[in-house]
Design brief:
36 strands; elongated
Length: 621
């Protein structure tokens, strides 16, 4: 027996024999609730393993047919890969037949077949069966079921069940099964407690693989738990994957912390949203207006929302339109996930669509709206997570590594491979904890280069701009250096073509400043006093002071005093000579100065880490 990653879902009008047919094919009665058995109708979703003649096992979902239970139907249909449309031979096409097929199309189902049931009831009505089959052919024209097999069967007598099984086998052979790689994503359709085990949830795995012992996140609440055990169709397994019906016993999650509509997924890959971008297709016979209130069914959740149309005031029947769904409660969805729209009242299906961008916001103004429309158009063309991420990072310029997980929605291993390919191709760059597009990176490097060039213009006699004055990340600086746009030498940065000028006025001014400061020595001079005493032109004085500060030859200390680096070193030696603990009075006496000048020096030394104040004395470090 081989479980395969494919889910077959029933569809059809109430009392057309869906549950009986599944029972005849699998031996499983999907009506498990007392109310279902009493009323003879399916209320909740039912599940059964269908073992094919070659030993493969397909998951089958039996959905309710009654119009009151469309929500449950959508919850089941959202996870299917192919449809088994059921039409009763004694009633033919009925209202829910039409609605279910429309829902299947809106949910992106591309393949399936039709079973015409209850043929035992029309045995005595000549031509009735042929008429119904002709109705089905006409009904399915232009849909994904056009030209697909139509098999007349009886669940009571078993007639043609073998033929139906063969057609299902052929269907399974041609439907592409879901890939097992990727981040695990399972919308919960049932949650209950088993005595001695705790919380159990069931659902159809949309993406990825999960194993016992894995840590998981429950969204939208954000609670975390652990997979204690896994079952697929009642059989204990060590791992489960996309396309399977999965039951999971969760450790660390109470039953009141999870319910239908929640999602069990790998941590950090998905996040809840209250606004997503989409393309809506309208199938109703009346327009859908901007900001109209609707029910949104996505995955196994149903929430109220407003439809925000981006380029029109309403959508006409049969039209597609870019839009946002502004939700009244948070949901969790993936890129490309399908959803159904129903009127707020009456509850009828009016359309559906595809999630293009899950993490949006309500725009204000025509500019942001145009940007969102453009994003929707581009992301519809992005067929892979890699192309989607490349577009989004080009749009944003810069994306954090944490954000990239949610924009790629994949395992860390697959994400690392995508990042490596884009990096090797020179399309993105890693800067600190962010990824940066090539365009934005070029802009940052060019701006950094211009900053250095501007410094060189103003301080042409210096060897370059001090690294600590750049106010940029080391990774960006290293990128600029490795690309050859900048050169770094002795903690100074300059452009490759830069040659320091021998500025006689600058050098003479610097020596003049040093001479003045040394003449005052421990009777320090303020910057304003120095400016008056130096009597240099304003431009020359400013250039000399800034150059000396950048080169570490001069510092401005508390109270506005100027301290030469030579005096700074000399004072440090004086302190060390006085012992590990010194008082201000000791320093004052050793230098022949006064408290007015010594206290600012000691405070400056405290800030530099040369000394540490402890009460009335300083500890020399």
């Amino acid at each position: 027996m081989s479980e395969i990653s494919l889910v077959l879902g029933t569809a059809g009008h109430i009392d057309h024999g869906k549950t009986a047919l599944i029972n005849a094919l699998t031996g499983v009665n999907c009506d498990r609730l007392i109310e279902e058995k009493r009323r003879g109708i399916t209320i909740e979703l039912g599940f059964a393993p269908l073992k094919l003649d070659d030993g493969r096992v397909v998951s089958v979902i039996d959905v309710p047919g009654h119009e009151k239970f469309i929500r449950q139907m959508v919850a089941g249909a959202s996870g299917i890969d192919a449809a088994l449309l059921v039409v009763a031979a004694d009633e033919s096409i009925m209202p829910q037949t039409r609605e279910h097929l429309a829902i299947m199309e809106l949910l992106g189902v591309h393949d399936g077949l039709v079973a015409v049931t209850k043929i035992d009831r029309v045995k005595d009505e000549e031509g009735m069966l042929e008429l119904v089959i002709d109705d089905v052919r006409e009904f399915t024209r232009g849909t994904f079921l056009e030209g697909k097999a139509i098999v007349p069967v009886s669940s009571i007598t078993g007639e043609n069940l073998g033929e139906l099984r063969r057609e299902i086998t052929a269907l399974v052979d041609r439907v592409k099964i879901r890939p097992r790689s990727g981040a695990f994503f399972l919308p919960v359709d049932r949650a209950f407690v088993i005595s001695g085990f705790g919380t159990v949830v069931t659902g159809t795995a949309y993406h990825g693989t999960i194993q016992t012992g894995d840590r998981v996140e429950i969204l939208p609440s954000g609670r975390e738990g652990r997979i204690r055990t896994l079952q697929v169709h009642g059989q204990s397994v060590e791992s489960a994957y996309a396309g399977q019906r999965v039951a999971s016993n969760l450790a660390g999650i109470d039953i009141d912390e999870i319910s239908r509509g929640d999602v069990v997924c790998h941590k950090g890959v998905f996040k809840a949203t209250k606004c997503f971008e989409a393309v809506i297709r309208l199938i109703a016979n009346e327009p859908l207006k901007h900001w109209q209130r609707v029910h949104v069914c996505t995955g196994t959740s149903e929430v109220l929302a407003r439809v925000s149309l981006l380029d029109s005031k309403q959508i006409e029947p049969g039209q597609d339109s870019p839009a946002q769904l502004v939700l009244e409660e948070p949901v969790v969805c993936t890129f490309g996930q399908r959803f159904i729209l129903r009127f707020y009242s009456p509850l009828i299906t009016i359309g559906g669509g595809e999630v293009i961008y899950p993490y949006s916001y309500k725009p204000r103004g025509s500019g942001p709206r145009a940007k969102i429309i453009s994003r929707i158009e581009h992301l519809r063309e992005a067929k892979t997570p890699e192309s989607r991420f490349e577009y989004l990072i080009n749009e944003a310029g810069r994306i954090s590594k944490a954000e990239s997980l949610q924009l790629i929605q994949d395992t860390q291993k697959n994400i690392d491979a995508i990042i490596e390919r884009l990096t090797n191709a020179g399309k993105i760059f890693a800067l600190d904890n962010d990824y940066v597009s090539r365009k934005h990176c070029d802009e940052l490097v060019n701006a950094l280069t211009e900053t250095v060039r501007d410094y060189q213009t103003h301080y042409s006699s210096e060897a370059g701009m001090p690294v600590e004055s750049l106010n940029t990340s080391r990774s960006l600086l290293n990128l600029a250096v490795s690309s050859g746009l900048l050169v770094m030498e002795s903690n100074k940065v300059h452009t490759p073509d830069f040659v320091p000028e021998n500025d006689e006025a600058f050098n003479a001014g610097k020596q003049h400043i040093k001479d003045i400061c040394m003449s005052h020595k421990w009777q320090l001079i303020t910057l304003d006093e120095l400016k008056r005493e130096a009597a240099l032109p304003e431009k020359v004085f400013s250039k000399v002071i800034q150059g000396m500060r950048n080169a570490g030859e001069l510092a401005l200390i508390p109270e506005g005093f100027v301290l030469l680096s030579e005096l700074e070193g000399e004072m440090l030696e004086i302190l060390k000579g006085l012992g590990e603990k010194v008082t201000l009075a000791q320093v004052r006496d050793a230098t022949g100065s006064t408290r007015k000048f010594i206290l600012p020096i000691l405070e400056y030394f405290d800030s530099k880490g040369y000394t540490r104040r402890a009460g009335d004395y300083r500890v020399v470090l």
